[in-house]
Amino acid sequence: MKKIGPRTASILDAALPVFARYGFHKTTMVDIARAAGISRASLYLAFNSKEELFRAGSARAHQQTMSNVEDVLSRNGDVIDRIADAISAFQEGLIAPFSRSESAKELFDINMQLAADITTDARLKLLKLLSEALADAQAHGEIDLKALKASPIDVATLIAAAMDGIKHTISANGPSDDAMKLLMRVLKSALNSERRS
């Protein structure tokens, strides 16, 4: 996504809670303009349609979130703890904003219609970042994946698949972090037990 100015960023920030409140189909450009504190005409100068605005918002959210994920994974410390924090950052940036909405399923579906390429690119980047973190930890003797007969990308793919499964269990209370925390504990235990043997 190309760099956006503060005015566009302000519009996209204002649009997010409006979409979360009303859903995509019920949200109007007037609703978004009002939330952004600008006229409808000014909004149309920035975005030609609600679809274009939603896609731009998705691109911005994915870009910001992946930057946060990268920052978390680049820190020092236990690799599984960093991965758990990275997954939390991913969910907080891309799932949590809509998960408590009554229109959560509609919003995730619309995102896949309007911004599937953006979502796919972010997922591929997540897999790459997780895999690199695991490979680095293995190279430094922090973990040993050989006994599991798994490569770093295998483990990264498992983590991402579990995250996807949890995302699809959205409820009125939002997605549960408990299942991901359990997976991280199981993974840490398995990798630590392999190091001990």
Q: Provide the helix percentage.
A: over 70%
What portion of the residues fall into strands of 2 or more residues?
under 5%
CATH class: Mainly Alpha
Provide the structure class: mainly alpha
Domain HTH tetR-type: 5-65
Organism: Phyllobacterium salinisoli
DNA-binding region: 28-47
Protein name: TetR/AcrR family transcriptional regulator
Name its key features.
197 residues; mainly alpha; Tetracycline Repressor, domain 2; 10 helices
Task: Provide a brief overview of the structure.
Residues 28-47 bind DNA. The chain has 197 residues and is mainly α.
Describe the structure.
The structure is a single chain. By secondary structure, the chain is mostly helical. It has one domain: Orthogonal Bundle (Tetracycline Repressor, domain 2), CATH 1.10.357. Helices cover 74% and strands 0% of the residues. It has helices at residues 6-22, 29-36, 40-46, 50-73, 79-94, 96-99, 104-114, 116-139, 152-167, 178-196. Helix 1 (6-22) packs across helix 4 (50-73) and helix 9 packs antiparallel against helix 10. It is elongated. The termini are far apart. 29% of the residues are buried. The model is unreliable at 170-175 (pLDDT under 50).
Task: Provide the fold topology.
Elements: H1 6-22, H2 29-36, H3 40-46, H4 50-73, H5 79-94, H6 96-99, H7 104-114, H8 116-139, H9 152-167, H10 178-196
